[in-house]
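Support request, please re-run this one:
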Amino acid sequence: MIEIEQQVWGATPEGEAIILYTMRNAKGAEVKVTNFGAAVVSILVPDREGRLADVALGYKHAQGYFRDGAASGKTVGRVANRIAFGRMTVDGKEYCLEVNNGVNHLHGGTDNFANRVWESRVETNRIAMVLVSPDGDQGYPGEMQVEAVFDFDDDNALEITYRAACDKTTVVNLTNHLYLNLSGENSGDILDHELRLNCSEVLEMNDKQIPTGRLLPVEGTPQDFRSFRPFREGIGSEFNHIGDFRGYDHPFVIEGWKKDILGEAGELRDARSGRCVTILTSQPSVMVYTGNWLSCGCPETKSGSRYIDHAGVAIECQNYPDAVNHENFPSPILNPGEIYCQKIVFRFGTF
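Re-run finished. Output below.
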């Protein structure tokens, strides 16, 4: 049985309460989430010796989460990742969205879901959060009702379920922007972590970090994670602009993906601690981002310092970036009467 505690963690400048929830299992492992940005702020799990450490990057104070550039542990949307030049056509109408990342629209805009207070409640052994996004919010059509549900169990599995419905045809692509360091959030970089992905293709990217529309085979490249390999050896490669992006920041195509079916995306492991995490999702791709800009203005961390570049890796389960502008990509369109429902599972263990 999961124990849940809740406390007031702070307040927004407008006086809205920021609530911190702690879900603790029978083994003493715990996950903390907050209603600001529907964010995961802490994951305490054991290493191979049974010693607990926090493996989720995050900040010392609730205020650190206000408009943080890294979106650490937060729910991003309406549309995670980039939309080229902030332009899209939905139901025959062209929309111009905020350009907030170079020439692109990123993560739903400056005032995206990661920077909102969600309504939250305890539902027996889970935490449910709800947000209403009005018609025209950040330039998107339709009023959208969004729900994020967080479950944690005695097998140290964190499950996040996203649901959404809208009264007009719109686009949606929700994910969680959790950064992991399996040695502990204050233990340096993740370049020697090893990743295995069930992905034989990666999206080709242009120099503006937008997919060209082509899928590249990963075989024989620095993006071949079909067997465990560390990030360090490929972090500066010229292949697919890895070096240009200061590290990995690429969407990988999940092998055998089927719509609305939960499948395994891959596994991250850390030889130093013996911790590992298996990632499952119902989404068609996984964005691997090695925290290439974490040193650029992150707030004070939980351990009282500042994160360096590559201090954590975000393995973001989501639809392809810029999918609204590519007919050959899985569709991000949500029509009235339809329910968007996607799951992400982080199953922690040791090896």
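The chain has a mean pLDDT of 97. The chain has no helices and 28 strands.
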